[in-house]
Write a structure and sequence with these properties.
By secondary structure, the protein is an alpha/beta fold. Among the domains are: 79 residues, Winged helix-like DNA-binding domain superfamily/Winged helix DNA-binding domain (Arc Repressor Mutant, subunit A); 225 residues, Type I PLP-dependent aspartate aminotransferase-like (Major domain) (Aspartate Aminotransferase, domain 2, 3-Layer(aba) Sandwich), CATH 3.40.640.10. It contains 19 helices and 14 strands. The chain has an eight-stranded mixed β-sheet with strand order 4-11-10-9-8-5-6-7, sandwiched between helices. A three-stranded antiparallel β-sheet has the order 1-3-2. The chain has a three-stranded antiparallel β-sheet with strand order 12-13-14. A hairpin with a 3-residue loop joins strand 2 and strand 3. About 3% of the residues have low confidence.
């Protein structure tokens, strides 16, 4: 096994104990620079935090803080028994040539971005490309072929036939009162959320809701828990707010709350997907829900509950929200119509504790002033007369059958190469690869066979013990699922030889 690289010489020369910048931040900056200029190439084994602390004459906590931030950004990878190594660059699944030579600014240089801008530009919110045809098993894709386009077109047309002045002009940044009332009623009935319309903010999709929550609740340097593996968009929102990220592992019971408390009990915020963890698919157990809420109350912390697709529960009824258990005191509830309607609608909602509502509305006005007016009225009408509930019931039935089609096809074509994990909610399943198989190579091989299946490690800050592939099924009919499973099986047999 190669010996860890000696970092003490150049680090000692560049660390200044007299500086007003904390030593942990100086150490992080020096290591990040070395990663960027090639002095620490991919795969380099770093010394243990204890050994480096002794060599530099620093406390181990100082070194741990720097290593933790690098790990949270995906720059280094820690393996149990294998030490810490420099992470390989993220391979592109499609169009890699576009990223080999990044475009230069027409009237300036790319390196004139702010420090925050560089951080944001380094994060890929999506693990799959935006361009090109939508192919199985790209996750997060609803059933466009089953969307009631005629009904939606009629409702939008009715709004435009007699548009109200309030729908066309500047309006409440928090959203249309009519739509907020309809959303509050739906959330109370369908998800046991405790709220009224004054707590609802209409946002341009869940990503804006995450960004708003991070901006309003986190100061530069505040600590935030994020699920590991977890939704990359949440990670990006926290980084944009200047947060110190603490990855908390996820297992079959959801986020390991006890581990999060041991790692950072002082955290200011925790981001969770309790009803259907993304991307593993597990459900946060009742004891862990209670522990998470108790921690938040004890430390005055906030919880952002992302409930992105839990209305699609295929066995029994949708699970009640974490916010409902809390009574709306420490939990901010995030919902979206991107998965239940279509992504281009760009309408989501954030339900905040009542004392935060006015401040959040003012903050939301800074982001893009207000949500679009006529579309809000059309959506409100769909919620008010039961059209939305009927659509959900149809989609729940359809997605249940497509989920079963994937399980059946996997038993035929993927039995020896991919172990699908049980998930009774949502629009995707996670398949675990045999031990030792690199899921990034597996994803690249799948793409070469015309199948999109993002690697589990692409969502993780600490490399998972077993690689996996995320398989979305909601947007594809049974024939497409069968064909894609067959092609994926061929690709995986090449990788798993």
């Amino acid at each position: 096994m190669p010996r860890p690289i000696d970092l003490s010489t150049f680090l000692t020369a560049n660390l200044d104990p007299a500086s007003r910048t904390p030593l942990s931040r100086q150490l992080y900056d020096e290591l990040k620079t070395a990663l960027g200029d090639g002095r620490l190439p991919a795969g380099t084994r770093l010394p243990s935090t204890r050994a480096l602390a002794e060599a530099l004459g620093l406390s181990r906590n100082t070194v741990l803080a720097a290593f933790d931030q690098l790990a949270a950004e995906g720059a280094v990878i820690g393996r149990r028994g294998g030490g810490t190594r420099v992470a390989p660059p993220m391979p592109e699944l499609e169009h890699p040539e576009e990223h080999r030579h990044p475009p230069r600014l027409r009237h300036g240089r790319p390196d004139r971005l702010s420090v925050r801008g560089k951080k944001l530009a380094a994060i890929r919110v999506a693990t799959t490309p935006f361009d090109g045809p939508v192919r199985p098993f790209r996750p997060g894709v609803p059933a466009y072929d089953a969307f009631p386009a005629d009904e939606w077109r009629r409702r939008v047309a009715e709004v435009w036939e007699r548009p109200r002045a309030s729908a066309l002009g500047y309006a409440d940044p928090a959203g249309s009162p009519r739509l907020r009332e309809a959303i509050a009623a739906h959330a109370r009935a369908a998800r046991a959320v405790v709220c009224d319309a004054s707590q609802v903010l209409v946002v341009s999709g869940s990503q804006q809701g995450l960004d708003l929550a991070a901006r309003m609740l986190l100061d530069e340097g505040d600590t935030a828990w994020i699920e590991d593996p977890g939704y990359v968009g949440a990670r990006a929102a926290m980084v944009a707010a200047g947060a110190h990220l603490v990855p908390v592992p996820v297992d079959d019971e959801g986020m390991d709350v006890a581990r999060g408390i041991r790692k950072a009990s002082h955290a200011r915020l925790a981001y969770v997907t309790p009803s259907h963890q993304y991307p593993r698919g597990s459900v946060l157990s009742r004891p862990r829900r209670e522990a998470l809420l108790a921690w938040a109350r004890r430390h005055g912390a906030w919880i952002v509950e992302d409930d992105y697709d839990s209305e699609y529960r295929h066995v029994g009824w949708p699970l009640p929200s974490l916010q409902g258990m809390d009574g709306g005191e420490r939990v901010l509830y995030l919902g979206t119509f991107s998965k239940t309607m279509f992504p281009a609608i760009r309408v989501g909602y954030l339900i905040v504790p009542r004392p935060l509502a006015e401040a959040f509305a003012r903050g939301r006005a800074i982001l893009d002033r207000q949500p679009p007016g006529p579309e809000q009225d059309a959506l409100a009408s769909l919620l008010e007369d039961g059209g939305y509930a009927r659509h959900l019931r149809r989609m729940r039935t359809l997605y249940g059958s497509r989920r079963q089609a994937l399980l059946t096809a996997a038993a035929t074509h993927l039995n020896s190469t991919l172990e699908l994990q049980p998930a009774e909610t949502g629009m995707h399943l996670l398949g675990l690869l045999p031990g030792g198989v690199d899921d990034r190579k597996a994803a690249a091989a799948a793409l070469a066979h015309g199948v999109e299946s993002p690697p589990l490690s692409g969502y993780a800050l600490t490399r998972p013990r077993r690689g996996g592939l995320v398989l979305g099924y909601a947007g594809y009919d049974e024939a497409a699922i069968e064909g894609a499973a067959c092609a994926l099986g061929e690709a995986l047999r090449e990788v798993c030889r």
